[in-house]
Amino acid sequence: xxxxxxxxxxxxxxxxxxxxxxxxxxxxxxxxxxxxxxxxxxxxxxxxxxxxxxxxxxxxxxxxxxxxxxxxxxxxxxxxxxxxxxxxxxxxxxxxxxxxxxxxxxxxxxxxxxxxxxxxxxxxxxxxxxxxxxxxxxxxxxxxxxxxxxxxxxxxxxxxxxxxxxxxxxxxxxxxxxxxxxxxxxxxxxxxxxxxxxxxxxxxxxxxxxxxxxxxxxxxxxxxxxxxxxxxxxxxxxxxxxxxxxxxxxxxxxxxxxxxxxxxxxxxxxxxxxxxxxxxxxxxxxxx
Length: 288
Ligand code: PLP
Known about the structure:
This protein is of the alpha+beta class. The chain has helices at residues 22-26, 44-57, 66-80, 125-130, 153-164, 207-219, 230-235, 266-286, and strands at 2-5, 8-11, 29-37, 40-41, 87-95, 113-120, 132-138, 169-174, 177-181, 185-190, 193-196, 223-224, 228-229, 238-243, 247-254, 257-258. Strands 7, 8, 9, 10, 11, 12, 13, 14, 15 and 16 form a ten-stranded mixed beta sheet that branches. Strands 2-1-6-5-3-4 form a six-stranded antiparallel beta sheet. Bound molecules: pyridoxal-5'-phosphate (PLP). Pyridoxal-5'-phosphate binds at residues 33, 155, 180, 183-185, 204, 206-209, 242-244.
């Protein structure tokens, strides 16, 4: 597999990062995961905007011209790794670079570390067909979850608890509210209204979440970006999670309790179909 590291395309096994890298030492960096279909990046401009906000939020200065180069690098990785057909994802990470260890920022001019790789995306279709189960856990994260940083320890621990419990996702709760998943955004249908946490610093506003909200408008599904309480979650007729690597995933069990009639709900299925249709149109439009 060919990856990109700091201006060079090389075999994955040859790609080495310094032990002084601040991504390694502090989780001091940001990342993006972009969906690709038939060699085309889906909704790249939204990922680019979120990346720019993240870099700005951490005061990491990206090299001039990087933003323009990233889609070209991504598409070349898709080509060189024979991912021009079907579903793939591109992982991108930018850290504050390698420098002697200090908590404060390294000297100006320290070059950020830039890494990209592409891989086959296997969507969880078997889980989708029967519906996912989730567990709820307290949200132990910091106050800037809107920045997509590689500092993911609370997410990692929550996801591991979900895996141990045989669940697809851990849904994080704070102050009696459903916040989001360990690596997804969460939605619930409460009294016929599709609800999700507003895009505040408590959540990472997912690209899939944004697209799903647009699709809800197009489809005439009433929605509100108003957080769902734990009590409302218990009464919800549908629950779903969204992420680049899962699309729209219906949830049929929360902490072992059945949601609705225990089968994937009609709104989740409709939104998922609409998301796939958008992806198809996108790919057809972008094709040379
Ligand atoms: N929230 C968190 C904490 C995430 O880690 C992710 C994806 O990794 C998402 C939401 C969903 O974001 P997106 O739809 O852009 O993949």
